[in-house]
C-alpha cells in the first residue's frame, strides 16, 4: 500500500521538476542578447487607408442629414436610392 502512494508522490514531483526546468528555460531564452530577433515590419492599418480613399456616395445617410440630427427627425425610415 505504501508503494502505491510513493509512486503518486514521485510522479507529482517529477511533473513539478519538469515544470520548473521548462520555466527556467523560457526565462533564459528571454534574457538572451537578441540573437534570435526578427526584424519588425511596420504595417499601416487598413482602416486609415480606407478612410483616406473613400468615395463620397449619395446613398450614405450620414452625409444627407444635417449635423447634429434633430431628435425624431423621421416618422418612418427614409428610402435611399442607390
From TrEMBL:
The chain crosses the membrane at residues 6-28. Keywords: Membrane, Transmembrane, Transmembrane helix. This is Cytochrome c oxidase subunit 1. It comes from Scheffersomyces spartinae.
Amino acid at each position: 500500500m505504501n508503494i502505491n502512494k510513493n509512486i503518486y508522490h514521485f510522479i507529482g514531483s517529477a511533473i513539478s521538476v519538469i515544470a520548473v526546468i521548462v520555466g527556467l528555460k523560457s526565462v533564459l531564452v528571454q534574457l538572451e542578447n537578441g540573437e534570435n530577433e526578427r526584424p519588425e515590419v511596420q504595417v499601416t492599418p487598413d482602416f486609415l487607408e480606407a478612410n483616406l480613399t473613400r468615395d463620397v456616395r449619395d446613398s450614405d445617410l450620414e452625409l444627407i442629414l444635417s449635423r447634429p440630427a434633430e431628435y425624431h427627425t423621421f416618422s418612418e425610415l427614409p428610402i435611399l436610392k442607390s
